[in-house]
Design brief:
By secondary structure, this protein is α+β, with helices and mostly antiparallel strands. Helices cover about 45% and strands about 20% of the residues. The protein has helices at about 5-15, 25-40, 55-70, 130-135, 155-170, 175-190, 195-200, 210-250, 255-270, 310-320, 335, 340-350, 380-450, 455-485, 500-515, 535-555, 615-625; strands at about 20-25, 45-55, 75-80, 90, 95, 105-110, 115-125, 145-150, 275-280, 285-290, 290-295, 305, 325, 350-360, 365-375, 495, 520-525, 535, 560-570, 570-580, 630, 640-645. The strands form 5 sheets. The chain has an 8-stranded mixed sheet with strand order 1-8-7-6-2-3-5-4, with helices on both faces. A 5-stranded antiparallel sheet has the order 11-9-15-14-13, with helices on both faces. Helix 1 crosses helix 5 (about 155-170) and helix 8 runs parallel beside helix 13. The longest helix is centred in the middle third of the chain and has 68 residues, at about 380-450. The radius of gyration is 47 Å and the shape is elongated. Mean pLDDT is about 85; it is low at about 130-140, about 190-205 and about 600-605. This is histidine kinase. Its EC number is 2.7.13.3. It catalyses: ATP + protein L-histidine = ADP + protein N-phospho-L-histidine. Keywords: Coiled coil, Kinase, Phosphoprotein, Transferase, Two-component regulatory system.
């Protein structure tokens, strides 16, 4: 059996002049105990009806009703069963009602004696949904609220008893005769209050003013306690969220991961429509959004160029170095007077806007933005604003740590590169210097110890010594050249040049240096109609020389080397030196420009060289603002080296 009618609603319908009040659970407990104590202290045998909602609430008071049962045989206790509570008699009548009955939401206590009467008829108010963290902190039982009637009025009390006895009879029809006796004894007999006062051993005083004052005091205390709970909860929530986000962002030293996690955690915690976190400096004109949190149905800003310098809100943040909050973009003067902000508001539906800077010692590192979208403005409480500022502060610390770690990694990489350079330098110079020196020494010793050496052999010895001496000179020259380029001690003399003339000079130099070597076929396909370039002629020829030497070195005499040039847009001219030689593995195309890089290893090479030529080319090309890169289809499939030169401005 399920009865959906509320006893409180039925009572208010029967007695419309009654005005319900709000009570905390602690106040109801105090009132109930006071009413029960009055029964225990009197000599009456009253009618008592107590409804405890759930069995667990009844168990907390069962010992009191064991004592009260000694006073009267008209005691009825109601509860929804959970474990062992059942309908029956155990010194008093127990009524187990259906857990779906409306009684599970009500709290009742009715006491009617010969000399006193009081009742407490209340219905529990729906509990507000609290975050999990607040549920753990606040005592939910003490903060429960009830709406209802508490009175000493006998007529009201009798009407409440009548309604409850009907409810009991519905669940336990076998109590019909006992309930009828209770109705006749307590509800139908008219008792004159004045006569009772005359007969009573102690006259009845109206306790209402005193108890009302006591209840008011209890209620005020409960409100203060609840307010304190909420204050502690807010602080605990703030600390928990800050710690949670701090732990999340400090699990990584990667800037992208830090900002992504922070946006996700903060957006969820603040329950905003959109949370943006982006890196920016005070002088930036735009920022690109890569890290955001979106609620359902809100459009994304990922990849958008977010205006900064033309954004009055951003400029205000930079100037004040503190948060800026726009409660309503439709009425805020800063937004209405800026076309940029109006465009953003219309495009992305922003109605409430919060900007909080991420700072480190006054330096702007980034920005946290919270957007509330829709038609109704959202007012963030001061606690929420302070919480966002706390997160932004933690972000600043995390970003500085990430930058420090990145700088440390860069430094470690540089140190490793220096160590590799030192090792390569020792290996290569040891090999490249020792080998020609040994040859020169052998040749000179032979010439000195063999005065009768045939002229033909003497000439061979001299040519060998001269060749290895030239090899040593080139090695030392390359070292000096690269050192000058890397240290910035080169004086550049840019001028307008024809690429064709520089190519011809490089080809002539290559052929002169290689008169005794069989070279691959070299073809120049450079038009004289190409625009002039702006470069230092000496260094441009140096780049071409080294690229040609490199191509010839790794291409067989039966192969081919080609030089081409073409315009690459309106600003640059692209020169390509291609060969049909050994080729380069795709994963090594970038490494070939490193200092001392050797395709075959420093000590297992079939061709000479220091591995400095391409490194020198890169330094020269970068100096005039160009680019240099290599392409190859793979091993033994040739290679192409490209570099760009700025086109000279026409007068």
């Amino acid at each position: 059996m399920i009865i959906n009618n509320s006893v409180l609603a039925d009572l208010l319908q029967e007695l419309p002049d009654l005005r319900p009040q709000m009570y905390f659970k602690s106040s109801l407990t105090a009132l109930s105990h006071a009413m029960e104590d009055q029964v225990l202290a009197s000599s009456d045998a009253p009618l008592i009806i107590a409804s405890f909602q759930q069995e667990r609430f009844y168990r907390q008071e069962a010992h009191r009703y064991q004592k009260i049962a000694l006073k009267s045989d008209q005691i009825y206790v109601l509860a929804a069963p959970e474990t062992s509570f059942t309908s029956g008699y155990d010194k008093y009548e127990m009524v187990a009602f259906d857990p779906e009955d409306s009684l599970t939401q009500e709290w009742h206590l009715v006491v009617i004696g010969q000399q006193y009467a009081s009742c407490l008829i209340c219905q529990e108010c729906p509990a507000a949904t609290l975050p999990e963290s607040e549920e753990k902190l606040i005592d939910i039982d003490t903060s429960r609220r009830f709406e209802g009637i508490w009175t000493f009025d006998r007529q009201v009390t009798k009407k409440a008893a009548e309604l409850l006895l009907k409810r009991i009879l519905a669940y336990r029809p076998e109590l019909k005769s006992k309930i009828k006796r209770a109705q006749k004894q307590f509800l139908q007999v008219k008792i004159a209050e004045q006569k009772i006062n005359e007969v009573a051993e102690y006259p009845i005083s109206n306790p209402d003013p005193f108890v009302q004052r006591l209840v008011t005091y209890l209620q005020a205390g409960q409100y203060k306690l609840l307010k304190a709970y909420k204050s502690i909860t807010v602080q605990e929530r703030k600390e928990r969220l800050v710690n949670s986000i701090t732990a999340a962002i400090r699990q990584s030293l990667n800037t992208h991961e830090i900002l992504s996690k922070a946006a996700e955690e903060l957006g969820q915690a603040m329950q905003v429509c959109r949370c943006l976190i982006y890196r920016c400096k005070q002088t930036d004109k735009f920022a690109t959004n890569h890290h955001e949190f979106l609620s359902h149905g809100v459009c994304s800003l990922a990849g958008e160029n977010w205006p900064l310098q033309d954004n009055p809100l951003f400029r205000e943040v930079v100037t004040k170095q503190e948060r800026v909050y726009v409660a309503n973009t439709q009425t805020d003067g800063r937004v209405q007077n800026s076309l940029v902000l109006q465009n953003l508001v219309q495009r992305f539906g922003i109605i409430s806007w919060l900007l909080v800077p991420v700072l480190d010692k006054g330096r702007l590192l980034g920005m946290v933005e919270l957007h509330h979208c829709g038609t109704v403005p959202h007012e963030w409480e001061e606690e929420a604003l302070e919480l966002t500022e706390a997160i932004a502060s933690q972000l600043g610390v995390a970003l500085i740590q990430a930058e420090a770690y990145a700088n440390l990694e860069d430094l470690n990489e540089q140190l490793e590169a220096l160590e590799r350079t030192r090792s390569n330098l020792i290996a290569i110079t040891g090999h490249e210097l020792r080998t020609p020196l040994s040859t020169i020494q052998v040749c000179l010793e032979s010439l000195a110890s063999e005065p009768d050496m045939p002229p033909e052999l003497r000439q061979v010895m001299l040519n060998t010594a001269l060749s290895d001496g030239e090899r040593m000179r080139k090695l030392i020259q390359d070292f000096l050249t690269l050192s000058q380029l890397e240290s910035g001690r080169v004086e550049w003399h840019p001028e307008a040049l024809q690429v064709q003339e520089c190519v011809d000079l490089a080809l002539s130099s290559t052929r002169v240096r290689s008169t005794k070597e069989e070279l691959p076929q070299i073809t120049a396909q450079v038009s004289a109609e190409l625009p002039l370039v702006q470069a230092d002629g000496e260094w441009l020829v140096e780049v071409l020389n080294k690229l040609l030497d490199n191509a010839c070195k790794f291409t067989s005499p039966q192969g081919e080397v080609t030089i081409q040039a073409k315009t690459n847009g309106n600003q640059m001219l692209e020169v390509t030196v291609a060969d049909t030689g050994r080729g380069i593995e795709p994963n090594r195309l970038e490494r070939v420009f490193d200092r001392f890089y050797q395709e075959e290893g420093a000590l297992r090479r079939t061709t000479g060289g220091t591995g400095l030529g391409l490194a020198i080319c890169r330094q020269i090309v970068n100096a005039w603002g160009g680019k240099i890169w290599a392409e190859s289809a793979g091993k033994d499939r040739g290679s192409q080296f490209h570099f760009t030169v700025p086109i000279a401005e026409s007068n």
